[in-house]
Specification:
The protein has one helix and six strands, in the order ββββαββ. It is mostly beta strands.
Length: 71
Amino acid sequence: IYSFSFGEEREFVISSKSKISNFKETITMTNNSLLIMGGEMQKYYKHSVPKRVSKTNQESTSLVVCLSKMY
């Protein structure tokens, strides 16, 4: 998964899918940034971009691209 962020800063949250682990990490995505999630990350972790009220009234856009294998 490739996640592109444009405009105002946004929070990108990664957390464990496991009920045993309480892992949670928040990454600040700045303008024109790219976050790449590879390997089996989607199998063990979930991600989100929480809605929030703008601090500066600037627009922000997040574009997520998922690539999958075709058999």
